[in-house]
Design a protein that fits this description.
This protein has about 675 residues and is α+β, with helices and mostly antiparallel strands. Helix 2 runs antiparallel to helix 6 and helix 8 crosses helix 9. The chain contains twelve helices and 27 strands.
Length: about 675
Amino acid sequence: MTKGANVVLGGLSDGDVESVVVSLGWVSPTGEGDADVSVLLLDENGKVRGDTDFYFYNNPCAPDGSVQLLGKTPVGEGSEDRIGFDLKALPDDVATILVAASRYGSARFDELEDLRLTLSDASGEPLLTYEVGDAGGVSALIFGELYRRGEEWKFRAVGQGYEAGFAALASDHGVDIEDDAETVDDAGSAGLEAFEEPVGVESVVERVPEPRAADEPAPHVESATGAVPSPRTPDAVPAPRRTRPRTAKKKVTLPKALKKSLAENDAWRGARLFPVSALKSDRDREMRATSVLLAVMAQVPEFGRRLTAGFGAPAGRMETFTEVSLPHGDTPRRPDGVLRVERAGKLWTALVETKTNGNPLKTEQVQAYADIAARRGYEAVITLSNDVALEGSPLVEVKIDRRRKNKVSLWHLSWAEVAHQAQMLIRHEGVVNPAHAWLLEELLYYLLHENSGCHGFQNMGPAWVPVRSGIQDETLCQGDPRALETVESWERLVRQVSLGLGGELGLKVLPVQRARRDADAVARRSRMADQLCRDGRLRAELRIEGVAGVLGVTADLRTTKIRTSIDIPAPEQGYPLSWAKRIVRELAEAPADLHIETLVEGETGGPRGTLERLRPEPGDMLPRSGVRITGFRLSLFKSMGGQRGNTEAGFIRSIDEAVHRFNAGVLAHLDRLVGKKGA
């Protein structure tokens, strides 16, 4: 589509367009650019009906399921933000849905490339694409809008920008903006970074505010019960001038702390809802895992909705079934599970095929279920296994007959992703019902138990040992298909590590895919394989929500060392010696073998040393030539496991341990050094 064009949704597909998914994407040449999506529901006058008509990452879904921010999904250039809309569930007085995005602080959209909007139906079939080619130097941008015309819904490609930022966009459409400081930016801009802290959230967890200087006023924000102090900004960083809208308040009840045990001795173990001791075979594990997961999805609506929203399922009453017999030629088929969601008298159905303990999905099985789903009018086939799906490289090759009126979509979940979503809900976001929180705790205990078989990606594959040996003895040649297999396994591992770290931090953690513009994922992995053959290194970068810079992970197969690192920018104010002293002071609890390298302008590198050596002499971090310091690189090194699996001596475990150690020893101190983005 072109800017200003509009189209009737019903004319784009023969199928159901009452549920659609809008994806916003962009490419950052530096790999560090990003933006936050937001949705506004407008009445006939182009204004929000109230504060609850504004949706962003701290208010991601509507109570009626009509709007659902689904988060980011990996694509070849990095990731796309997806938003699900159930158009039939929208109130009649909503005339327009505005889909927008905003950048942080002084960042502008002309710094990003390939700005695009894609609208898909419930099965994931793309219906239209709009490429924004003239965004300009704006910090907020309306990509498009869905609007009613009589009984029909239409889409318009808007591409309208706001130089004054998100505050101006929101104010134009009736969102009530409040000042959190005495003044607002001269330009009047405010990105969604102003909303990092949830507003009006109560929990049973006691929150202790950080200490502040005696002469420092305590800034306040409104909550559901009154004014409460907002988190203090880091030392030596002035309080930002920002704005925020009033948002919906949501009371959250987190799981209560466990009471003192009544057991006679420590050898007694509490009874578990989902026992794992009786699991003897792979078939037992598959049946138990499927039944446990589907049962909890049906009983904990917020968890079930979280897993199915990305598949195009509506928000409604969910029922789940196991070991269902369905006719298929002479031999009935028995999928591991069936998932059904009812909304407004309509049924959405998905067949579920499960594998555990590292067993691969079978193409013949999944193909049969896709055929059955197409014949019976079901919407999806969902596969679950320890493996991680990659863009452009499906786990199983399934042929979907596009000539059928009913289009079946194929989706995959890894067990690591299921555990991640459960952990995010109960450990960080909270669950309204305490009984639901207990069910999720039991599910998480089961998934993480060594006997469940639901441990995620655990094997680098048969190509790992030959590739590692070929690099060490310099016999691996470019074009060797085993190098590509290793790169694919590495990418699966990186995605799983991102889920684990995100669940630990309670933040979005996504792999950064630095790719040439218009290059697909398969071509990118091919280049990575050639680079692996040349220098013997596997590299990855992880972007952590709210943290300046990216976490780098490098596995050097020649030296058998793993390096985890992050670059932090030099402060804009103060003296270099003060910077050096502050870094050493704030990293007092970091590992003594932490390497600190000073990054300087126009040179390959500045002074470097271990934290242990620099503690008595922080001035050794400063270059003697007086060249300008641009930042500091913090790195930890660890020996690399050689085996392909997740054993004690395995490569996968060594990567997990390296990232966990860097998080606990270094990332935990970064908020004091550079502050959260937008804080």
